[in-house]
Automatic annotation (TrEMBL):
This protein's UniProt keywords: Cell membrane, Membrane, Transmembrane, Transmembrane helix
Predominant place of localization: membrane
Protein name: PST family polysaccharide transporter
Top-level taxon: Bacteria
GO CC term, one of those recorded: plasma membrane
UniProt topology in membrane: Multi-pass membrane protein
Localization: Cell membrane
Regions crossing the membrane: 7-29, 41-62, 83-105, 111-133, 140-158, 164-183, 204-223, 246-269, 281-303, 315-337, 349-366, 372-393, 414-430, 436-457
UniProt entry tagged with the keyword Transferase: no
Length: 474
């Protein structure tokens, strides 16, 4: 039950931190327009590279290392401060590199400075510690107030396109405040560090091992916006960013299991319980497939109606992008289950690293001809192909460790249920007017049809849920 509780906390947190920009997006689409949204997407994609290089894989590495020493206050104290000080140093080096970058570029300086506060905020991100000790409540509760303040600030201070710099500054400040509010909770778990006993650099090379796949991952997360901004226009970058926001919000519900399960599997692996770790993978893979497959079909079914209602008709180009990108909801759910929830906690970093490097290479290589030929649509197809590469390699890398039959045991039933749901939603979509009430009816109909189909097809996850509920009632 602790895993379920942590999943719900983390799912709520991931959804909430995405809901703030999601709630503001319809307003900002109207106020800032495609150009303002595009400038923000492009400049943010640039600053993300500096944040990435400043973080050197600490989030995943720190999460895992804290999970390994969980239970010893002394070891947690030492491990936390060694990793925290390492991150301070690396972020400082990255900021110096950012200053050199500013001397080379000739436009958007004001926006880059506003974005750079996010880099400063990265130095104080200690969410990895609380994820390592499996305390997800503190990150949810403490960031809730900060995010609400962000939401209010956007509506109060951002009135037209000239306020784009203020908008970026508000988002950056929210990251910094959110990270700083976590520090008071540390006292419950760690003590004061003995500086002379700290060995900061012992963590550098191991974190670099996890940093390499994060570089690759980040590249194919943001390189599309960067390349679109350079090769096409900032408006194209903005269209892709809007599509990305919706897909990531949907993904947050699914990938929340990754952060929750990593310390759990790492702890089982540290105790030599290999079969237990594999069983976690089978259960988690089935769970994320059960969620991601209907979400994929659902996004495809409602995109045409959703986009003009949510973004305005000026962003109509986002609809086909969402339909194409919807495929990655399933692909990333699978790679999250295999990579984040199994390969990393069982110390199979090389396989994980290779998969994301291959994905990044495929994305960069095919982005150039695809963007030149088809513009922003080409970038969306490049994203799908890169995610197929990642998931495909990870599945191949565990072929001798797991049973594919157990891994995919109910996926055909999830797909059948998803197709039936898709057809029903499209039927509603064709016959209902284009308004929010109609969209809400379509979503509820889709959920209902999919749920009924799971019962009809008698999938194992439903039977397990029924047994768990019956057991708890007794």
């Amino acid at each position: 039950m602790q895993v379920v509780k942590n999943y719900l906390y983390n799912a709520f947190y991931q959804i909430f931190i995405l809901l703030v920009p999601l709630i503001t997006t319809p307003y900002l689409s109207r106020v800032l327009g495609p150009t303002g949204v595009g400038i923000n997407a492009y400049t943010n994609s640039i600053i993300q590279y500096f944040i990435l290089f400043g973080s050197v894989g600490v989030n995943l590495y720190g999460n895992r290392q804290i999970a390994f020493v969980h239970g010893s206050r002394e070891k947690m104290t030492t491990t936390f401060y060694e990793i925290f000080f390492l991150r301070i140093i690396t972020v400082a080096c990255s900021f110096i590199a950012f200053l050199f970058f500013l001397r080379l570029v000739k436009q958007y300086h004001t926006y880059y400075w506003a974005q750079s506060l996010s880099l400063f905020a990265a130095a104080f991100d200690i969410s990895w510690f609380f994820m390592g000790i499996e305390n997800f409540a503190v990150t949810v509760l403490r960031n809730f107030v900060v995010k609400v303040l962000t939401l209010v600030s956007v509506f109060v201070f951002v009135k037209d396109q000239s306020d784009l710099g203020i908008y970026i500054l508000i988002l950056s400040m929210s990251l910094l405040l959110g990270n700083l509010t976590l520090f008071p909770s540390l006292r419950k778990y760690i003590g004061r560090p003995v500086i002379k006993h700290l060995n900061i650099w012992q963590h550098f090379l191991p974190s670099i091992a996890l940093f390499i796949p994060q570089v690759a991952t980040q590249i194919y997360l943001v390189v599309n916006k960067t390349m679109l901004g350079v090769m096409a226009s900032v408006q194209a970058s903005g269209y892709f960013d809007q599509s990305d926001k919706i897909i990531k919000m949907v993904l947050a519900i699914v990938t929340a299991t990754g952060t929750v399960m990593l310390p759990h599997v790492a702890n089982a692996f540290a105790q030599g319980k290999i079969e237990k770790a594999k069983n976690y993978l089978y259960s988690s893979f089935s769970f994320v497939s059960c969620l991601s497959i209907p979400m994929f079909f659902g996004v495809m079914a409602v995109a045409d109606k959703f986009v003009p209602l949510f973004f305005t008709r000026r962003f109509q180009s986002v609809a086909p992008l969402m339909m194409i990108e919807a495929v990655v909801i399933v692909l990333i759910a699978w790679s999250n289950a295999i990579g984040t929830q199994y390969l990393l906690p069982t110390k199979q970093t090389r396989a994980y690293t290779t998969s994301v490097i291959l994905g990044a290479m495929i994305n960069i290589i095919i982005n150039v001809p695809f963007i030149l030929l088809w513009g922003v649509i080409g970038a969306a197809f490049a994203t799908v192909l890169s995610e197929m590469t990642v998931s495909g390699y990870q599945l191949w890398s565990v072929r001798r460790q797991i049973s594919y039959k157990r891994l995919f045991r109910d996926n055909n039933r999830y797909i059948i249920a998803g197709i039936v749901m898709f057809l029903c939603v499209r039927l509603f979509d064709y016959n209902l007017a284009a308004n929010w009430w109609a969209l809400g009816i379509e979503v509820l109909a889709g959920i209902s049809v999919y749920g009924i189909m799971l019962f009809v097809l008698r999938v194992d996850i439903v039977k397990d849920a029924v047994q768990l509920f019956s057991h708890r009632r007794r």
